Amino acid sequence: MDSSTRVRLIEPADAAAIAAHRVRDVEAFRPWEPAQPARFLTADGQAERIEKLLAGHRAGTVWPGVVLADDQVIGQVTVGGILPQPHLRRGTVGYWIASTAQNRGHAGRAVELVLRVMTDELGLHRAEASTHLENLPSQRVLRRNGFSPYGVAHSSILLDGDWRDSLLWERVLGG
Ligand SMILES: CC(C)(COP(=O)(O)OP(=O)(O)OC[C@H]1O[C@@H](n2cnc3c(N)ncnc32)[C@H](O)[C@@H]1OP(=O)(O)O)[C@@H](O)C(=O)NCCC(=O)NCCS
Fold this sequence. Notes:
single chain; Aminopeptidase; seven-stranded mixed beta sheet; alpha+beta; 175 residues
């Protein structure tokens, strides 16, 4: 594990770094991430997206983070679909790490840090996630952080032109 991993809220100034990673990694991510319009791969497109994520943060439905290594943006970790109602208090964790920084423990550590945000800052009780059935690195990241698989959602996400099943993961945070 690389102890330099940090997470913080995304900022408009992160747009160029994120666009550069996503341009480089278009082919590598194709099996695992949904297809996006061409604008997604530009700094302007990412800036618009970041504004929407920050609006979601202000509304309390999203905690949009970036992952940093040695103070450079190397990926994103996002808590989406936040349901803050007292009887639900849950959110869904998603993440990606640039191909140039993978397999050094960054995603595992980023998820560990965002779980702390979910408990300490957001007061959530339950974390959820979903992975492609064949995305073993992503599944390792979740298992290492105490998530368990609890089911399969059939034909739930369009990836690389096909509707794919998703493995559903949960971790009860307590509180
Ligand atoms: C999945 C992803 C976030 C992992 O990021 P990362 O920083 O490389 O993850 P980590 O280094 O923390 O952990 C990777 C784990 O997968 C394991 N791994 C790597 N390649 C593997 C393979 N082919 N088969 C099985 N396990 C593998 C590593 O050994 C490590 O497990 P360990 O902690 O038990 O040693 C990154 O690969 C990624 O962004 N992929 C493309 C987008 C994506 O899949 N997003 C998630 C969608 S659910």
